[in-house]
């Protein structure tokens, strides 16, 4: 253990105490996991934490208690292995050792003759959830914020028994969802009710008195008054479910995420293998993945989302931010209506929308009310909150309602002249310190504000669609935007629970600029004569969330053509204008129908006689990305390459196994070949040189 103990671990201590529970003739042993910090630094397990738990279990069993229970500090059970220590492992033997240590310690709870319980009082992920699975029984708090086995999203597998225990507890369909499907869907978490319905927990309890009720329930189990029944797992469907899951992975990832396929293999092992054989296979899989480039990219991406996103580079002193007690939204279309609901829910202040006529205003307010009603009907919002939101959102055809607003955002037609006219009119109405924000996706903030008396209060506030789902917010500083305006924008972004990135006022900012360059390379290949299906398959080896044509359909061909035109005007040497894209936009037809290319769209194309291979299309697209990112960094569009990756992960859904985009470009040698150097040093999102 000496080599493992050398890692820079924040040790989670396992604190043991004896608890007298009414109705039992002996005290219970309660082990509380606590790393000494508040909930913002969750419990995790490295070698030191596992050793502490091992010692606590030894002491607990020695006291011959009525039962042994493990719980966590307030709001947190345990979020798994200390993944920050993984890059410090020197060789495969150390990786095997950390896997075996976790298995050995956790197995003591599973193999104990004294009943063992997990009181899952808060967030339980990865190894934390696996620890709970080893216990004989599990209670779960309705306030537990995050429940998951997210390892595959990082490039790992659940390596402390999860792949063997979970399918034999809740069945193979649900286990495949938790271990593979959810991690690959932007690391989707389970809600406590869902976890209980799956059978991960034996009982769901209210958070207010969770520990007391858990002790009472456990005592009832020990006395035989509470009987825990679990349905028998159907093993007849095991092979069929895994076959379908493998087909789905092949169709979506094309082998790009080795961890997902390793997890499938382990789930297959869990059907018939004894537990020792299954956990030994987990150890081997873990050791294989620890030294993969995909894991290093995954850890890098995880760090960006968990740390950098919470401390935006270049953001001004938050003390400069002005209070926002009322929000105005210019426009009442779909985007504006989504914004109105988001601002009302998060800021809990009055939000008023305006539009050209009452019918449009009523439609926008009606959309908000409908969404509130849906949330109530699905149990996602209580009636009291709904009633409050109904009262906060209103509409008017008179822009005079913005006179007392502190923050006004426009979501009107993407035309510079229209937006300048809006601001010119509003500047005469709003108070002098009001922030004027634009949701433009590509237009210049500086140009938009240049004719105003106070251009310093105009800021870009670019959301991504759907607004409620995608967490990125590009905050764009114009040439005259002042620090107070920028600080207010960042403060509002934080209240909205968005991850904000500071972006220079440059055409299309970050995500749209890169996606337009990327799609431009694909469509250039189509224009040259490459069949649509060939161009569409070309990027499959990256394992992107969707193929290029599906992405284009999601964005909207008309929007893509418009943004492309903006970028062509700014950079005509790199951003072409595809007449074929215009034909598709003008046709109004879907490009893809049931994952198949629309034959009617294909007939619209006018193409050349120089088709490219899939490999050529892919390399052209990657080369274009590398060139554009280097130029953006040289221009100072963002502070560092890490911000590019953060934007692509949070705004475009690009996966962790790519690290966003720059680690993949480095890994494949594209960065150095196209730009002469890497974006990130060796050892950052990659193995050391």
UniProtKB/TrEMBL annotation:
Residues 509-588 form the 3-hydroxyacyl-CoA dehydrogenase C-terminal domain. Gene3D superfamilies: 1.10.1040.50, 2-enoyl-CoA Hydratase, Chain A, domain 1, NAD(P)-binding Rossmann-like Domain. It catalyses: a (3S)-3-hydroxyacyl-CoA + NAD(+) = a 3-oxoacyl-CoA + NADH + H(+). One of its GO terms (molecular function) is NAD+ binding. It comes from the Bacteria. SUPFAM superfamilies: 6-phosphogluconate dehydrogenase C-terminal domain-like, ClpP/crotonase, NAD(P)-binding Rossmann-fold domains. GO terms for biological process: fatty acid beta-oxidation. Pathway: Lipid metabolism; fatty acid beta-oxidation; Lipid metabolism; butanoate metabolism. Residues 326-505 form the 3-hydroxyacyl-CoA dehydrogenase NAD binding domain. Keywords: Fatty acid metabolism, Lipid degradation, Lipid metabolism, Lyase, Multifunctional enzyme, NAD, Oxidoreductase. Belongs to the 3-hydroxyacyl-CoA dehydrogenase family. In the central section; belongs to the 3-hydroxyacyl-CoA dehydrogenase family. This is 3-hydroxyacyl-CoA dehydrogenase. It comes from Micromonospora echinofusca.
């Amino acid at each position: 253990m000496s080599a493992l103990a050398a890692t820079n671990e924040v040790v989670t201590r396992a604190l043991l105490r004896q608890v007298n529970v009414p109705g039992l003739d002996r005290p219970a042993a309660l082990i509380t996991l606590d790393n000494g910090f508040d909930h913002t630094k969750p419990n995790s397990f490295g070698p030191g934490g596992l050793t502490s738990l091992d010692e606590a279990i030894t002491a607990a069993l020695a006291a011959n208690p009525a039962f042994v229970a493990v719980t966590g500090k307030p709001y947190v059970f345990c979020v798994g292995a200390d993944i920050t220590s993984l890059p410090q492992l020197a060789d495969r033997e150390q990786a095997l050792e950390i896997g075996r240590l976790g298995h050995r310690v956790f197995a003591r709870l599973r193999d104990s003759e004294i009943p063992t319980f997990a009181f899952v009082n808060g967030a339980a992920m990865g190894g934390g959830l696996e620890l709970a699975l080893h216990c004989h029984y599990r209670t779960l708090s309705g306030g537990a914020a995050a429940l998951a086995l997210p390892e595959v999203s990082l490039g790992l597998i659940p390596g402390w028994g999860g792949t063997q225990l979970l399918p034999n507890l809740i069945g193979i369909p649900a286990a495949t969802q938790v271990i593979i499907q959810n991690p690959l869907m932007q690391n989707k978490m389970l809600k406590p009710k869902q976890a209980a319905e799956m059978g991960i927990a034996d009982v769901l309890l209210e958070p207010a008195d969770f520990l007391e009720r858990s002790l009472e329930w456990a005592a009832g189990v020990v006395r035989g008054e509470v009987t825990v029944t679990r349905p028998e797992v159907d093993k007849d469907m095991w092979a069929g479910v895994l076959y379908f899951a493998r087909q789905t992975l092949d169709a979506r990832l094309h082998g790009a995420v080795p961890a997902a396929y390793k997890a499938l293999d382990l789930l297959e092992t869990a059907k018939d293998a004894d537990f020792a054989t299954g956990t030994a296979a987990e150890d081997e899989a873990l050791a294989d993945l620890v030294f993969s480039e995909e894991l290093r990219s995954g850890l890098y991406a995880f760090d960006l989302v968990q740390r950098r996103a919470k401390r935006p580079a270049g953001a001004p002193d938050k003390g400069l931010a002005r209070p926002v007690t009322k929000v105005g939204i210019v426009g009442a279309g779909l985007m504006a209506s989504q914004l109105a609901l988001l601002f009302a829910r998060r800021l809990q202040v009055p939000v008023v929308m305006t539009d050209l006529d009452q019918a449009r205003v009523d439609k926008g307010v009606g959309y908000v009310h409908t969404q509130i009603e849906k949330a109530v009907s699905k149990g996602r919002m209580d009636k009291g909150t709904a009633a409050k939101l109904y009262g906060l959102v209103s509409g008017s055809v008179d822009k005079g309602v913005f006179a007392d607003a502190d923050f006004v955002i426009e979501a009107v037609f993407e035309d510079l002249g229209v937006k300048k006219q809006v601001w010119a009119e509003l500047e005469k109405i709003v108070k002098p310190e009001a922030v004027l924000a634009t949701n433009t996706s590509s237009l210049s903030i500086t140009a938009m504000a240049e004719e105003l008396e106070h251009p310093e209060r105009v800021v870009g506030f670019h959301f991504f669609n759907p607004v409620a789902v995608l967490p990125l917010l590009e905050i764009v500083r114009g040439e005259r935007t002042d620090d107070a305006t920028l600080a207010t924008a960042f403060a509002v972004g934080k209240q909205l629970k968005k991850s904000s990135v500071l972006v220079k006022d440059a055409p299309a900012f970050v995500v749209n600029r890169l996606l337009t360059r990327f799609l431009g390379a694909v469509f250039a290949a189509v224009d040259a004569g490459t069949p649509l299906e060939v161009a569409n398959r070309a990027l499959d080896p990256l394992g992107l969330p969707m193929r290029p044509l599906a992405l284009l359909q999601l964005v909207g061909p008309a929007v893509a053509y418009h943004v492309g035109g903006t970028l062509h005007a700014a950079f005509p040497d790199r951003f072409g204008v595809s007449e074929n894209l215009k034909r598709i936009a003008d046709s109004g037809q879907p490009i893809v129908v049931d994952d198949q290319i629309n034959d009617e769209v294909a007939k619209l194309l006018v193409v050349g006689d120089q088709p490219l291979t899939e490999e050529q299309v892919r390399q052209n697209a990657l080369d274009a990305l590398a060139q554009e990112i280097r130029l953006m960094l040289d221009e100072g569009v963002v502070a560092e390459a890490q911000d590019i990756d953060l934007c692509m992960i949070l705004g475009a859904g690009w996966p962790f196994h790519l690290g966003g985009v720059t680690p993949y470009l480095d890994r494949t040698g594209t960065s150095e070949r196209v730009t002469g150097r890497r974006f990130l040093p060796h050892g950052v999102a990659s193995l050391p040189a």
